[in-house]
Prior knowledge:
- This protein is of the alpha+beta class.
- The chain has one domain (about 1-130): Jelly Rolls.
- The protein is built from three helices and eight strands; from the N terminus they run ββαββααββββ.
- A hairpin with a 2-residue loop joins strand 5 (about 95-100) and strand 6 (about 105).
- The longest helix has 13 residues, at about 55-70.
- The structure holds zinc ion.
- Zinc ion binds next to loops.
Amino acid sequence: MKREFGVQTKDLAELIDITAEVQEHLKASKIKDGICVIYIPHTTASVCINENADPSVKSDINDTLDKLIPRDGSYSHSEGNADAHVKASIIGSSRVVLIESGKLLLGTWQGIYFCEFDGPRKRKVVLKFLGS
Ligand code: ZN
């Protein structure tokens, strides 16, 4: 079962907590046991799972990626968003989360983040639920 939803990003780079939306779609799918694939069909955005309690974790991730892969670094790609392509590749375009009793099996402090690296843009998140 495939589902999708839109994300409107507001900044050049930001992490947006999409855990609630994914859980909502899981509930509608009626799948109780299985796996959920979260897939981002973009080349300058990605998805990660990390702490969603302390908001400074989000900015630490972005700030660290910026130091490692600066926007104004020396790249061959002429669009001016080479850093976003590299960041998206490193973080990755998909994640798999286990489903148990109709819920995403996430740790207490874990959340699913849509990672924007070349915003603001209108983005898409694709979900695939496998199970019964
Ligand atoms: Zn590009």
